[in-house]
User: Fold this.
Amino acid sequence: MRRSRPRRRTGSRWDPDTSDKWWLLVAVHLGAIPLLFALALVGRGVVLLVGQGSAGFVRTLLLLALYVMLFVAGPVGVFFDKKYVRSVSGWTPTRWYYLMFFVPFSWVMAADYLWRRHRHVGTP
Assistant:
């Protein structure tokens, strides 16, 4: 007996083709960058809070979570938000915005994307 694939729900709030909320991932990406630098600067405070033995582990987990936000959230948000922006405005975001995962360009690319999206779509 063959199983049929479940139907894809359309019109839901987080449907990639109709959702206008994917820019939030780009905003998370933009917000994670200062947090990453602040955590690097406050690393000594982590040692004082949790002790010498587990400080490295805690700091590594926090940095790993921020790196995931930094490298995954931005490009994934651009990928899905690009479909929505293209459908409601005349602007088609370029593929250059996928360079957000590359750290030297990430802050500039995320801020530029959100600014241009605001000019063409009106949100954020």
Summary: The CA atoms of residues 89 and 120 lie 6 Å apart. The mean pLDDT is 77. The chain is about 65% helix and 0% strand. The radius of gyration is 18 Å.
